[in-house]
Design brief:
With about 190 residues, this protein is α+β, with helices and mostly antiparallel strands. About 45% of the residues lie in helices and about 20% in strands. The chain has one domain: Aminopeptidase (3-Layer(aba) Sandwich), CATH 3.40.630.
């Protein structure tokens, strides 16, 4: 694995769009991305937004074969600046759609309530190129990142909307501590440490 540089933004966005664009069931990505003929372009805007957020306030890891990535966020390091405000406005207009912003904000509010106070790490998003799913690339990357953080004492908190992802996180030692169904689909909250 390697740590992403800013020049990896397009690669990371490509991996994440490939991983999430085939998914049609209710989940967090499909809640955020407006579903229309521009869905793929809108999804790219979201993935670039997440890249910038993790790049500035966390870390991004890419598999050795450039087919998987994981974006980590350290929320306690986040700062509101003109640049971050502009990127959120851009996300609202080019990805979410103004009429759906309140729905997305409601989801964020629900999720945030279940996160601990203080410092923690969030695996913001992880993906593998769609044509590489099932070949172990994502699992190897998760193992490498987990080994890299083996001396970490901060809690690692993740929310997942699919049972498949919950099963994957459990294999890496995460435990479900809360389930919320208030948005019409389940959101599972898992913790490591």
């Amino acid at each position: 694995m390697r740590i992403a540089s800013h020049t990896d933004k397009n690669l990371v966005a490509e991996i994440l769009v490939s991983a999430f664009s085939p998914l049609r069931e209710e989940n967090s990505i499909n809640l955020v991305v407006k579903k229309d003929e521009k869905r793929t372009q809108r999804m790219k805007v979201l993935m670039e937004f997440l890249f910038e957020r993790a790049y500035n306030f966390g870390e991004i890891y890419i598999s050795t074969n450039n087919k998987a990535c994981i974006l980590l966020l350290f929320p306690h390091q986040e700062k509101t600046t003109l640049k971050t405000l502009f990127s959120k406005v851009k996300l609202a207009f080019k990805c979410i759609g103004i009429n759906r912003v309140f729905k997305v904000l409601k989801r964020q509010d629900k999720v945030k309530k279940h996160y601990p106070k203080g410092e923690y790490i969030i695996p913001l998003i992880m993906g593998v190129l769609n044509d590489s799913k099932g070949n172990g690339t994502a699992a190897r990357l998760m193992i490498e990142v987990k080994n890299h953080y083996k001396n970490n004492t901060l809690p690692v908190i993740v929310d997942a909307a699919s049972k498949k992802n919950v099963t994957l996180y459990k294999k890496f030692g995460f435990k479900v501590f809360k389930e919320d169904n208030s948005l019409g689909f389940p959101i599972y909250f898992l913790r490591l440490n």
